[in-house]
C-alpha cells in the first residue's frame, strides 16, 4: 500500500516525548509546588510518552516508515504498556496518595490502596454492561475487554470537552457577549467590599473585648460569695454569651457576603481586561475568529443531530471524499495516491497537534484552579489518567478520518471493536454537552447584570 | 473603654502554608480544627496590651488580614486583592519549611503587597525583579514565620534554618519558626522595628482549651 519502507528512528522519539512530558510537568503544572514524590512525575511523563507514541505510529503508518511488521509489533507493545499504565499503575497510585492524605488510614497505606484499586476495577468492569461495545465472540480475558472500556470513558471525556469547547470558544472570542463594565462599577464594588471588611473588623473587636471582659469579670466573680453573688454571676455570663453568639452570627453572614463581593469584583476586573484586550489588533482578530467558530459550532451540532436522527454511519473519510469531489465534479486529474497520503498526513497531524495542545492547556487550567499543596499529587495523577484515556480514544475515533489503507492497522491492533458505536456515542454526548453548555452560558450571562443590582 | 488605635497587619503566603491556622492561633488561642481554603480575605482581631504593667500601658487591637490565593493568580485576582493592601502597619510573611517554593514565592508576595503601599518613599519596581535595596528602606516592618518545623527530619533541620536565616536577612525582617500547633506551650515574641516608636509586643504563653 505505501512506498518503500524508509528507516525511521523510533526510540529517540519516545525519549523526546518523555522529556517533553517531564518538562511540562515541572514548568507548567508544578511550578508553584515542590515535587517531593518523583514517582508522580515519572508516571505522568511515561503516560504522556506512550500516548504520543501512538500518534507517532499513525504518522508512521501514513508515511510508510519502518516495515509493516515492525510497525505492528510496536503498536501492540505500545498498546499493552499503555493499558498496563492506565489500568494498573495510575489508578493504584491515585488510591495510594489519596489514602496517604487521610490520617486514619495512613498506617495501612498499601492495604487500603489495594482495596481502592479493586473497587476501581469492579466499577471499570461493570462499565461494559450497558454498552454494546463487544461482539460476543470475545473471551473474558481478552485485550478488547480492556480497550473497549477505556474507549468508552475516553470518548465520553472527549465528547464532553469537545461540546463545551465548541460553544465556549465563540462565546469567549466574540466581544458581542462582553458585558459593559466601567471603572466606576469596579470602584463601587471595591468600596462595598472594604466597608464589609470594616464591619467584620468592628464586630470582631466587640467580640474580643466582650470575651476579655467576661474573662476578667469571671476572675472577680470567683471572689463573690453568697446567694446573690451566685445569681448575679450566672445571669451576667448568660447574657454575655447570648450577645456573643448573636454577634458571631452577624459576623458569619458578613464574611459570606465579603467572599461573594470578592468573587464579583474579580469577575468584573476580568471582564474589564477582556474589554481592553478586544480593542487591540489581536482582540479584533479573535473576535473575527469567534464568528467563524460559531458557524462551525452550529454546523457540528447540526451534523451530530442528523447522524443520530437518521442513524447515519460515515462511510468515507473527508480526505477521500474531498478527492472524489475534486476529481468527479471539478474534473481535475491528479495522482490520487500521492495526494491522499500527503493530505492525510497533514490533516491527521493537525488533529493530533491541536488535540494534544488543547488537552494540555485545559489540564493546566484545571490543575491550577483546583489543586492545593496537599492534593497536587492526586490531581496530577487523575489528569494523567484522563490524558491517557483521551489519547487512546482519539486514536480510536481518528480511524474515521483516515483513508482505508491506513485505517486497517488501527482496526487490526485494537481488535474488533464496534467502532460505529463509539462514533454514535460521541455524537450523543457531544450534543448533550453542547446544548447544556449553551443553556449554562445563557443563564450565567443573563444572571450577571442582575446580580450587581441586587448586591 | 479607652480609645484603641488601629493596627493593621497583613498575613501573606502561598496557600496551604498555614496562614489561617496561624491567625486563628494568635487571635482565638485555639488550634484551628478544620482549615479550609480562604476565599478573598479573612480578618481576625487580637487584643494586645502594650507595655503591660507600665504607666504607658495601652491596649491595641491588632487586625490580622489573612489574604488568600497564590502568587500565580490571574491579574484580575491580583487587582482585586490589592484593595486589601492599603494603609498597612506591618506584614507577616508565612512560608512552609517543608516546601522551598513557598519560601521563594515570598519575594513575589512582598513585592505585590509593597507595590500597593502608598508610602512616601515611593517604592519603584523594575519589571518585578527582586531588589534588596527596596527592603532596606522599607518603612513597613516585616516578620517572617516558618511553619511545620516538626515535619522536617532531624538531619535536615540545620540546613533549613540556615536557609531561612538568609531569607530573613534579605527581607530585613525578624524571623520565627513554629512547630506543630498542637504543642501545649507556644511563646512568641514579636518585634516590629521601625513602627513609630519601636514597640515590642510580647505574646505570653498561650494556653489551649
From TrEMBL, chain A:
<keyword id="KW-0472">Membrane</keyword>
<feature type="transmembrane region" description="Helical">
    <location>
        <begin position="6"/>
        <end position="26"/>
    </location>
</feature>
<feature type="domain" description="Abscisic acid G-protein coupled receptor-like">
    <location>
        <begin position="277"/>
        <end position="446"/>
    </location>
</feature>
<keyword id="KW-1133">Transmembrane helix</keyword>
<feature type="transmembrane region" description="Helical">
    <location>
        <begin position="378"/>
        <end position="402"/>
    </location>
</feature>
<feature type="transmembrane region" description="Helical">
    <location>
        <begin position="288"/>
        <end position="310"/>
    </location>
</feature>
<feature type="transmembrane region" description="Helical">
    <location>
        <begin position="79"/>
        <end position="98"/>
    </location>
</feature>
<dbReference type="InterPro" id="IPR025969">
    <property type="entry name" value="ABA_GPCR_dom"/>
</dbReference>
<feature type="transmembrane region" description="Helical">
    <location>
        <begin position="422"/>
        <end position="443"/>
    </location>
</feature>
<dbReference type="InterPro" id="IPR015672">
    <property type="entry name" value="GPHR/GTG"/>
</dbReference>
<feature type="transmembrane region" description="Helical">
    <location>
        <begin position="343"/>
        <end position="366"/>
    </location>
</feature>
<keyword id="KW-0812">Transmembrane</keyword>
<protein>
    <submittedName>
        <fullName>G protein-coupled receptor 89B</fullName>
    </submittedName>
</protein>
<feature type="domain" description="Golgi pH regulator conserved">
    <location>
        <begin position="142"/>
        <end position="207"/>
    </location>
</feature>
<dbReference type="InterPro" id="IPR022535">
    <property type="entry name" value="Golgi_pH-regulator_cons_dom"/>
</dbReference>
<dbReference type="GO" id="GO:0051452">
    <property type="term" value="P:intracellular pH reduction"/>
</dbReference>
<feature type="transmembrane region" description="Helical">
    <location>
        <begin position="38"/>
        <end position="59"/>
    </location>
</feature>
<dbReference type="GO" id="GO:0008308">
    <property type="term" value="F:voltage-gated monoatomic anion channel activity"/>
</dbReference>
<feature type="transmembrane region" description="Helical">
    <location>
        <begin position="147"/>
        <end position="169"/>
    </location>
</feature>
<dbReference type="Pfam" id="PF12537">
    <property type="entry name" value="GPHR_N"/>
</dbReference>
<feature type="transmembrane region" description="Helical">
    <location>
        <begin position="110"/>
        <end position="127"/>
    </location>
</feature>
<dbReference type="Pfam" id="PF12430">
    <property type="entry name" value="ABA_GPCR"/>
</dbReference>
Automatic annotation (TrEMBL), chain B:
<dbReference type="Pfam" id="PF08477">
    <property type="entry name" value="Roc"/>
</dbReference>
<dbReference type="GO" id="GO:0005525">
    <property type="term" value="F:GTP binding"/>
</dbReference>
<comment type="similarity">
    <text>Belongs to the small GTPase superfamily. Rab family.</text>
</comment>
<dbReference type="InterPro" id="IPR027417">
    <property type="entry name" value="P-loop_NTPase"/>
</dbReference>
<keyword id="KW-0547">Nucleotide-binding</keyword>
<keyword id="KW-0342">GTP-binding</keyword>
<protein>
    <recommendedName>
        <fullName>Rab-like protein 3</fullName>
    </recommendedName>
</protein>
<comment type="function">
    <text>Required for KRAS signaling regulation and modulation of cell proliferation. Regulator of KRAS prenylation, and probably prenylation of other small GTPases. Required for lymphocyte development and function. Not required for myeloid cell development.</text>
</comment>
